[in-house]
Write a structure and sequence with these properties.
Layout (H helix, E strand, L loop, with lengths): L28 H14 L11 H17 L2 H22 L10 H12 L4 H19 L2 H7 L17
């Protein structure tokens, strides 16, 4: 016999599935703050559409979180660890007692330049990987893609429709 008391079904707490928690439920508030600070410093505006423009920001961040949610757990942990590394990188690499997300934009850009010019290949590759993921999510926002001249239906044409050279 078990010594644990029985719990009545009405006393059990139901936890909503992750999707029910809202569109931005994959990252914590701190992780969102870090990725937004990173993106603003790493990705230049595209023809007047800054990555930090509110409506654009919500769309690319939602795509980023959707992508993160579909990754295997180990990869999600890796991205989260990278975000924390970036957050504390001013202290780790520059001995500056500040968090990346709380630095002014110009200082964040300088911090990322330090990553780009690092002698450590792994540091450069981690920066490139996160930058590529963010850029992919950002440029997949319809307004940004249109401002770059991407046609949404560019892959829907048949090969016979293509001009011959």
């Amino acid at each position: 016999m078990s010594s644990l008391p029985a719990v009545a079904p009405e006393e059990t707490e139901t936890v909503p599935p992750p999707a029910a928690a809202g569109p931005l439920s994959t990252l914590s508030e701190a992780e969102r703050r870090i990725i937004l600070a990173f993106a603003e410093a790493a990705i230049p505006p595209v023809r007047g559409l800054s990555i930090s423009t509110t409506h654009v920001q919500h769309k690319w961040l939602s795509k980023f979180e959707d992508l993160l949610a579909r990754m295997p757990r180990e990869q999600r942990r890796g991205i989260r660890s990278l975000l924390r590394l970036i957050e504390y990188s001013p202290l780790i690499f520059s001995l500056r007692p500040a968090r990346f997300s709380r630095l002014p934009l110009e200082e964040r850009e300088r911090q990322l330049q330090g990553w780009e010019g690092s002698h450590w290949l792994v540091r450069r590759l981690l920066l490139l990987a996160l930058k590529a993921i963010v850029a992919m999510c950002y440029t997949s926002v319809e307004e940004v893609a249109a401002s770059l001249g991407y046609a949404r239906d560019c892959l829907s044409h048949h090969r016979s429709d293509l001009p011959r050279t």
